[in-house]
């Protein structure tokens, strides 16, 4: 089918929640091809899902081997891939225990339920979230999200979420009350426009949580798994949350989400308290385990840091040279070009010139390339971006 044929059938049959423009039919490494065979350099990577690139041979093999061996059995049984994946995640951070679901929203729902259960006997359930954050599209995670456009039309929202100013510790302190149980935040706000937490803010939130006996919860769904040049975003600040959520890049495109907890929360969910039919199936866990192995074996956290520096310096040079660019934001390979006006037209031009990216938060052109990009990919991307700014 060509793009028009695909779009005709799609638009007639799929609810119009998205407004896709192009039809992609194949991906390999850092490249994708559309239905007409046009090649693109993919600097969006499924919005930070394809951290190891498209169809990495080791992940394809792990999925195929596991699919032939055992895809699903239900969580009534022990399975080796889930055991090994949890052990690997716990060895990378917090040294506690994991719960597996299927998406980012489900992982954040898990965090929310975990926090509520932990605070339940004291009647504490309220979670302080940040303005401009994004945590998902289920009712509870939309309520946690600090953007009214995500909530509009779905009111009344579930209660128990209040919103402080990001990077403003006083505004967080002002919201702490008898019912507060946790503080939830992203180390780098993704959908909010690639905004990093300040060092004092992260340190201050951790100290506040310790002082008031609150849980510090991090949403690492977009900024985790090497994206920012460290395994997890919070690791830039020398603080550890009590638990954090993962999804997006965890399965390299196979759906899987996780709640990763430290000591304080690791045994709060007891049998019957939380569950998910597909959570942590052998197939999903095999995909995730091989993803973590590839990130390790190929040094992708380090590559994200070094390529990120190079790409950011190149973007900064463009910002200095071209009047319509305000500046550059982000860390590692989670970068945004801040335009002086709306970013939509610039992003469209860049995509039409062969580089996939995404306009976000009105004025930001967002880049989230695979973490295994090379010098050559960075050069190519910068050339395309510059040709569109000229
Ligand atoms: C994408 C995202 C989510 C939601 O994940 P889904 O898999 O779409 O439910 C939550 N939080 C952050 C920070 C995200 O980037």
Overview of this structure, please?
The chain is an alpha/beta fold. The protein has two domains: 3-55 and 299-389, Aspartate Aminotransferase, domain 1 (Alpha-Beta Complex), CATH 3.90.1150.10; 57-297, Type I PLP-dependent aspartate aminotransferase-like (Major domain) (Aspartate Aminotransferase, domain 2), CATH 3.40.640.10. Helix content is 38%, strand content 19%. The chain is built from 13 helices and 17 strands. The protein has helices spanning 3-13, 45-48, 57-69, 80-92, 104-119, 139-144, 148-151, 169-173, 199-212, 282-297, 300-321, 344-352, 375-389, and strands spanning 24-28, 31-34, 39-42, 97-101, 126-130, 161-164, 180-185, 188-189, 195-196, 215-219, 243-246, 257-261, 325-331, 334-339, 355-356, 358-360, 364-367. A seven-stranded mixed β-sheet has the order 4-12-11-10-7-5-6, sandwiched between helices. Strand 2 (31-34) and strand 3 (39-42) form a beta hairpin. The model has no long low-confidence stretch (mean pLDDT 98). Pyridoxal-5'-phosphate binds at residues 103-105, 108, 134-136, 186, 190-191, 219, 221-222, 247-248.
Indicate the topology.
Elements: H1 3-13, E1 24-28, E2 31-34, E3 39-42, H2 45-48, H3 57-69, H4 80-92, E4 97-101, H5 104-119, E5 126-130, H6 139-144, H7 148-151, E6 161-164, H8 169-173, E7 180-185, E8 188-189, E9 195-196, H9 199-212, E10 215-219, E11 243-246, E12 257-261, H10 282-297, H11 300-321, E13 325-331, E14 334-339, H12 344-352, E15 355-356, E16 358-360, E17 364-367, H13 375-389
Parallel strand pairs: 3-15, 5-6, 5-7, 7-10, 10-11
Antiparallel strand pairs: 1-2, 2-3, 4-12, 8-9, 11-12, 13-14, 14-17, 16-17
Helix pairs in contact: 3-10, 4-10, 11-13
Bound molecules: pyridoxal-5'-phosphate.
């Amino acid at each position: 089918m060509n793009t028009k044929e695909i779009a005709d059938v799609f638009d007639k049959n799929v609810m119009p929640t998205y407004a896709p423009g192009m039809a992609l039919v194949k991906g390999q490494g850092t490249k994708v091809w559309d239905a007409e065979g046009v090649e693109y350099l993919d600097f969006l990577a499924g919005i930070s899902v394809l951290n190891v690139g498209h169809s990495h041979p080791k992940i394809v093999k792990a999925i195929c081997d596991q699919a032939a061996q055992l895809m699903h059995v239900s969580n009534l049984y022990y399975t080796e891939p889930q055991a090994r994946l949890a052990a690997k995640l716990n060895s990378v951070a917090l040294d506690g225990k994991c719960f597996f679901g299927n998406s980012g929203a489900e992982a954040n729902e898990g965090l929310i339920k975990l926090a509520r259960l932990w605070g339940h006997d004291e009647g504490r359930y309220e979670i302080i979230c940040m303005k401009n954050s994004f945590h998902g599209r289920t009712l509870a995670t939309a309520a946690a999200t600090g953007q009214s456009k995500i909530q509009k039309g779905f009111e009344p929202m579930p209660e128990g979420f209040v919103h402080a100013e990001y990077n403003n510790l006083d505004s967080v302190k002002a919201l702490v009350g008898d019912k507060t149980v946790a503080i939830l935040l992203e180390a780098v706000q993704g959908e909010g426009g690639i905004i990093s937490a300040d060092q004092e803010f992260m340190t201050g939130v951790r100290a506040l949580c310790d002082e008031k006996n609150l849980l510090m919860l991090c949403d690492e769904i977009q900024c985790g798994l090497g994206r920012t040049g460290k395994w997890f975003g919070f690791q830039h600040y020398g603080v550890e949350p009590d638990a954090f959520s993962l999804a997006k890049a965890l399965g390299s495109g196979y759906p899987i989400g996780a709640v990763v907890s430290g000591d304080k929360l690791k045994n709060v969910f007891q049998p019957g308290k939380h569950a998910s039919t597909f959570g942590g199936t052998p197939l999903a866990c095999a995909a995730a385990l091989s993803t973590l192995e590839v990130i390790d074996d190929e040094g992708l956290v380090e590559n994200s840091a070094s390529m990120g520096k190079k790409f950011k310096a190149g973007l900064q040079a463009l910002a200095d040279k071209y009047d319509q660019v305000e500046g550059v934001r982000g860390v590692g390979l989670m970068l945004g070009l801040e335009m002086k006006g709306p970013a939509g037209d610039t992003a469209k031009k860049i995509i039409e010139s062969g580089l996939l990216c995404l306009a976000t938060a009105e004025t930001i052109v967002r880049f989230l390339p695979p973490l295994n990009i090379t010098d050559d990919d960075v050069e190519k991307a910068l050339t395309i971006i510059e040709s569109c700014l000229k």
